[in-house]
Amino acid sequence: MSETSQDTRTLRAHHALMLLPFIWHLALAPMINDVRWQPWGLPFAMVWQMAGILVTSLIIGTVYRLDREPRPDRQPPNDPQP
């Protein structure tokens, strides 16, 4: 494997943020199932899922932006000017 292909598979600390949507949608769903509060006349579980979609979108956007930032330990190669 070349160094560049291996570099793209390196996990960085902010990738752990991608666990939050998983926890939001699967682990916490049983806890909110019995909530009787109905904001805007909608079942709370529906509002919870809609909020989860928004939170997930924000997390994915954040991870995408952080992935695009240059890493300080990797400098681009200097191309000699002719």
Secondary structure elements and their pairing?
Blueprint: H1 3-7, H2 19-27, H3 29-32, H4 44-68
Helix pairs in contact: 2-4
What does this entry look like structurally?
With 82 residues, the chain is an all-alpha fold. The chain has a domain at 12-68. Helix content is 52%, strand content 0%. It has 4 helices and no strands. It has helices spanning 3-7, 19-27, 29-32, 44-68. It is elongated, with a radius of gyration of 20 Å. The two termini are 31 Å apart. Residues 1-6 have low confidence and may be disordered.
Overall pLDDT confidence: 78
| Number of separate helices | 4
Largest sheet: none
Number of strands: 0
Q: Which regions have little confidence, pLDDT < 50, spanning 5+ residues?
A: 1-6
Q: Report, as a whole number of angstroms, the end-to-end distance.
A: 31 Å
Helix content: 40-55%
